[in-house]
Amino acid sequence: MPVVSLTKVATSPSAATAAGNFTIRVPCFYGKRLVSNRVSFGNLRRRSCISHCVRSELQSSRVLGSVIDSSLDNSVENGHLPKGDSWAVHKFGGTCVGNSERIKDVADVVVKDDSERKLVVVSAMAKVTDMMYDLIHRAQSRDDSYLSALEAVLEKHRATALDLLDGDELASFLARLHDDINNLKAMLRAIYIAGHATESFSDFVVGHGELWSAQMLAAVVRKRGLDCTWMDARDVLVVSPTSSNQVDPDFVESEKRLEKWFTQNSSKIIIATGFIASTPQNIPTTLKRDGSDFSAAIMGALFRSHQLTIWTDVDGVYSADPRKVSEAVILQTLSYQEAWEMSYFGANVLHPRTIIPVMKYDIPIVIRNIFNLSAPGTMICRQSEDEDGYKLDAPVKGFATIDNLALVNVEGTGMAGVPGTASAIFSAVKEVGANVIMISQASSEHSVCFAVPEKEVKAVSEALNSRFREALAGGRLSQIEIIPNCSILAAVGQKMASTPGVSATFFNALAKANINIRAIAQGCSEFNITVVIKREDCIRALRAVHSRFYLSRTMLAVGIIGPGLIGGTLLDQIRDQAAVLKEEFKIDLRVIGITGSSKMLMSESGIDLSRWRELMKEEGEPANMEKFTQYVKGNHFIPNSVMVDCTADADIASCYYNWLLRGIHVVTPNKKANSGPLDQYLKIRDLQRKSYAHYFYEATVGAGLPIISTLRGLLETGDKILRIEGIFSGTLSYLFNNFVGTRSFSEVVAEAKQAGFTEPDPRDDLSGTDVARKVTILARESGLKLDLDGLPVQNLVPKPLQACASAEEFMEKLPQFDEELSKQRQEAEAAGEVLRYVGVVDALGKKGTVELKRYKKDHPFAQLSGADNIIAFTTTRYYEQPLIVRGPGAGAQVTAGGIFSDILRLAFYLGAPS
Ligand code: ADP
Ligand code: ASP
Ligand code: MG
């Protein structure tokens, strides 16, 4: 046991708060100044932890000449510690020992493990380490609330102990706890006075959480009648600090100390503190945040245990952080390298340094859930493709992200071919102690870029600017650019090395989610591909790549504009089909916004489509298109967003360009954009080709009939369009299909209006504008640069009635003009023909028309019934016999169906399985 003689350094006893306290002068850093402070300490125990700390301060300032370190002598008796398979090492994280009930559960697990010997590493109770760091923070900010915060720490442990223990065990724990708290009070008082805590003071303070949890757990196991000792890992684990603010274990020294410790505590169940250790000079230190996993791995290696089980609050290692990707799946096995890469890149289920110590002895790590004992967990062990019986399942095992990074880009033509530039850059970075997380250098050597934690980037930038002042002034370096607010996304998998196309799929998924990549790195081992992206894109990116590789669900955030007849029918169709899409097609459509012209409704988790009408009325807020767009796009969780414009509004159509520019996909039956001003249409199409944003508008012509897609298919496969001719208006189709026998035209119009087949004012149909828009759309789709204005349209509304004030007046006067059309019909009939109102795209003549034409009675257009549309494509391939598409081309159900199938087409483009 280390014993510290303080006689020569301690000054006279002070007027300290508690009897037996004393005061010494210890040197502390105050800002950058070394000052001397009076520090009061409570009663030193037989083996006081403070002794480590005091000694640290004194030794480091070279004022101590008389501290006697008797902790280590060379008389270690070897051979007492039985190493090897008889040992099982378990580690329980903070949540596992979060309260008294959980500590009992942990004790159950320990007791039930039938290994011959057990070493259990335990973290502090959940949140306690944060509370301890907070104490230091308060004290050094000279905020005396550290006292009440310390009281809370005491109370938490006192209450837990009261729940768990009784008799002597309780009394001795509480005595120790109160003692520790008193010592901490003195220590924090010193920090408060100095306004500063040295690293060893901090490490000493924060490690108490583990001291208490380990003692309580050991006592609970003893209560079950088993022989169990607790271990203060500072007596055993020796680690040396490194320049990169980490610590390296000294295995040789730790092994010696362990042997010695074991000779005095040879128990078959040992509960050891995680997180804390000593320096070679016996100064208390820690393995840094989340370091208990690392402690356990070192213990596993020291004991050569047969397994290391890390107990936590999730079922194992997931393919992505389950808090960010709800579809993440548990990985049954991981190789050591894969686990290391996952943890290095931010999967905090495992501390990255856990792997190396156990890997050396081939000790498997199993990650298990204390709250779900039936889950087998994830096994991390040695794996290779060649090993018999082992099959590496997926090329990409998992994804992880690191936030709060900045990218540093050092650029300049003077770097090419100049040896030592990279080393100069990174030595400047090292001098400020920054941690470089990834590096990427263009092969032209014109730029080196690397990612560092955001909080370190200022120092890095200053160091580089100072190191390269001359090169910058001389123009050899053009800039040292800092790009803040970045995140890293890494794909990890051992099999990536031997599987072509993994990066292509990875980048493709990112491109489809419209995520810009700022830097890329892929190591030679190819165990990971790393990209740097904007922080705000991080979760979307993670979900996009995850769903691509795991074929979980293609998620699409949907914003519906115009919940009228068509929009409303669409919402109902989505409601009815959502479950099937999710289960069978792996498509997760989430309508996260609905906006009408006056009200809008939004919900990030998806609007309840069984009640959207009521919700809209009850919870709708005033409509605001900018806010709506921001909402649909601004959600950071669903990788892709689509706006579905179900209006006939030109203003809404004018938003498409900006939506596409922002990476929002657009689906619409609204004809206004594609038949509107030519320059705007061309701008949209140009953007569409250049970007990964999709624009689908099948329902603009023929509702749900496959007209645009048929035309596209013909063009894309190299066919040449000669002519498109068709009956594009359901209303006009109905009117002329029924304008037979002795019936007058006005009579048929009145009947159609009555049946709801016309617009409220039938002149909107009869004017031919709607057909003209469709012809314009098809003409443009075929490559003609036509404008609606230049298209000759035969208006069926008699001239004198075009100015009628109301639909009623129009209907009333229409019979007066029946004669003209009756005459035309009779003439046609006499020639064995019928009248049909058609739109024509004449691709050869580069023109379009909308007119009333006559067709032979055996022509397909003459055979039509009801309100069907019919479209004939005459092409070089379909020359003798045109390709005909026929069917109902109007009505809410079929139009909504057409829009819906565009939304699904989009999902397939985005990676849903077909
Ligand atoms: P403990 O206190 O037990 O050490 P941690 O909080 O350090 O627990 O680690 C467990 C947490 O890690 C989980 O609750 C989970 O939210 C998070 N996590 C992040 N990435 C992953 C991943 N890929 N697989 C599993 N858990 C992950
Ligand atoms: N208790 C320490 C921390 O919270 C170590 C650990 O739990 O791994 O950082
Ligand atoms: Mg942890």
From TrEMBL:
GO biological process: homoserine biosynthetic process; lysine biosynthetic process via diaminopimelate; methionine biosynthetic process; threonine biosynthetic process
Pathway per the UniProt entry: Amino-acid biosynthesis; L-threonine biosynthesis; L-threonine from L-aspartate: step 1/5; Amino-acid biosynthesis; L-threonine biosynthesis; L-threonine from L-aspartate: step 3/5; Amino-acid biosynthesis; L-lysine biosynthesis via DAP pathway; (S)-tetrahydrodipicolinate from L-aspartate: step 1/4; Amino-acid biosynthesis; L-methionine biosynthesis via de novo pathway; L-homoserine from L-aspartate: step 3/3
Ranges for domain ACT: 410-485, 491-568
UniProt feature coiled coil, ranges: none
Cofactor: a metal cation
Molecular-function annotations in GO: aspartate kinase activity; ATP binding; homoserine dehydrogenase activity; metal ion binding; NADP binding
Keywords from the named record: Amino-acid biosynthesis, ATP-binding, Chloroplast, Kinase, Lysine biosynthesis, Metal-binding, Methionine biosynthesis, Multifunctional enzyme, NAD, NADP, Nucleotide-binding, Oxidoreductase, Plastid, Repeat, Sodium, Threonine biosynthesis, Transferase, Transit peptide
Gene3D superfamilies: Acetylglutamate kinase-like, Dihydrodipicolinate Reductase, domain 2, NAD(P)-binding Rossmann-like Domain, VC0802-like
Pfam family, one: NAD_binding_3
An annotated GO cellular component: chloroplast
Subcellular localization(s) per the UniProt record: Plastid, Chloroplast
Oxidoreductase is among the record's keywords: yes
Biological role stated in the UniProt entry: Bifunctional aspartate kinase and homoserine dehydrogenase that catalyzes the first and the third steps toward the synthesis of lysine, methionine and threonine from aspartate.
Entry's family note: In the C-terminal section; belongs to the homoserine dehydrogenase family. In the N-terminal section; belongs to the aspartokinase family.
Listed name of the protein: ACT domain-containing protein
Species name: Arabis nemorensis
